[in-house]
Amino acid sequence: MAPQTSIPVAATVLGTIGTVCWCVQLAPQIWRNYRTKSTEGLPASMMLLWSISGVPFGIYAISQQFNIPLIVQPQCFCVLCAVSWAQCLVYGRKWRTWTATLLLVTLLVIFAGLEAGLIFAIRPAYSRGIEWPVLLIGIVAFVTLISGYFPIPFELLKRRGRVVGIDFVFLTIDWCGAFFSLMALVAQNEFDVLFGTMYALCCVIEMSMVASHLVWLWRTRGIRKRAKEASKTFDESEEGIEWQAKGVDLEAKFLKLFPKTKSPEEGFHADSDSIATLVVPEHVTSKTVPNAVV
Fold this sequence. Notes:
294 residues; mainly alpha; 0% strand; globular; PQ-loop_rpt; transmembrane; PQ loop repeat protein; membrane; transmembrane helix
């Protein structure tokens, strides 16, 4: 696809709305993570993949000469997703804050250098009419962003359709950002099929997440009502815990196929303890010889 030669006003306005949404979309999620000190239900891999996708996304947008808002959008998206991923490390995996912060800053510096380097690397070829490098980068951005949604179905199966750990304000703003960005592409002189498809898929996936949670609310309405009458939350009531435990944890089933093996050091200590037990019994009873002659 050739780069845009002129940008209609409507495309700029719609793109600005979409960019504003995607610049602040993760703020409610980041605040929720900080307030609750928990990222349970929020896949760290999703945040990392989304952050990574910002690099090829930005390269493609600049190369295609999208309107300015759509060029700024992936940069903000990349940073906010990286911050949320760092929170997953701190709250979910109990990393030290300074360690996660150092990793976050290092990652963002690498992303910035990689994006700038690739833009200057492919620009001469693209100006000569060689389009496949830009198309390849666009495909990488598309695949990486959509791959970030892959953990979501597993989380929904585990919780029987319940959305946990993901802020619905974030989902709403994110959906609006994808929708208005899609409309901005429609308003351009030439529609970008690759990114148009990506924005459309984002809208569909996020609507399906909301629909899944609404179905969960309908199915558990009786349990939640009885829990409320007992002055308990759904997660505190025995009936709710029992109902929720029937979810399918595919990740746990997969891990059972690969039992944890002991490290050489653990095996050495285990063998040493076994040998010590054989050589020095824990309880030794003395034997007496009756009628012994001294």
